[in-house]
Amino acid sequence: MIDPALWIVFVGTVILLQMPPGPDSMLVMARGIGQGRGVALFTVLGMTLGAGLVQLPLLALGISSLVSASPMAFNLLRWAGAAYLVWLGIKLLLASPASLNVADMKNVRPLAAAREGMIANLVNPWPITFMIAFLPQFVDPNGGSVTLQLLLLGATQKMTGVLVLGSYAIASGSIGEWIMDRPRVRLWQQRIAGCFIVGLGIRMAVGGTSR
């Protein structure tokens, strides 16, 4: 198994790497401010635990390595992720004042929020690429099953993601409670968040790194 001291170093490093804003955190903040803390937290669960149910087996079985090794497959995934982010951003940009009443904003089902977060993370190729490049650095070939070590490290990364993105969700949800009572501020927040998310999608499409 993994050396406890090495695991602690891994936890600290991966938290620091997850803290800078990226597509996932921007979407979580937009959800927190627009739909509230609960919806943002379910979005986080989709991005981390939900996506992990797909990514971790792929990582352990080596299938994801084949995807990252194929420029065509990687680019297709990157473009799909970019298109999805642009679509989410445009939805925020086109939101009308009439659609931003409190009843509609709160009427977002938790499972729908989790599903959207899961899709956003899965179609972004950078999380799985990061896992492929980073996690093996902490694997001890003489420490038992490499597959089990990768699964443990991957699960740890997803749990730290819950903590980091969950902090974004809680903070943005608190701001959202103040914004909810101010329709004009809420509308401009949606538009600004939409611009940021569209910009991140374009950045991803042209090959910039994202987290």
List keywords for this structure.
211 residues; mainly alpha; 80% helix; globular
Overall structural domain count: 1
Shape call: globular
Order of helices and strands: HHHHHHHHHH
Structural class call reads mainly alpha
Tell me about the biggest sheet?
none
Q: Within the CATH hierarchy, at the fold level, what is the topology?
A: Growth Hormone, Chain: A
What's the β-strand tally?
A: 0
> How big a fraction of the residues is strand?
under 5%
Number of helices: 10
Structural account:
The chain is mostly helical and 211 residues long. It has a single domain (23-205), classed as Growth Hormone, Chain: A (Up-down Bundle). 80% of the residues lie in helices and 0% in strands. The two termini are 28 Å apart. The model is unreliable at 99-106 (pLDDT under 50).
Give the SSE map.
Elements: H1 4-18, H2 23-35, H3 37-61, H4 63-69, H5 71-93, H6 102-106, H7 110-122, H8 125-134, H9 146-179, H10 183-205
Helix pairs in contact: 1-9, 2-3, 2-9, 2-10, 3-7, 3-9, 5-10
What does this entry show, briefly?
The chain has 211 residues and is mostly helical. It has helices spanning 4-18, 23-35, 37-61, 63-69, 71-93, 102-106, 110-122, 125-134, 146-179, 183-205.
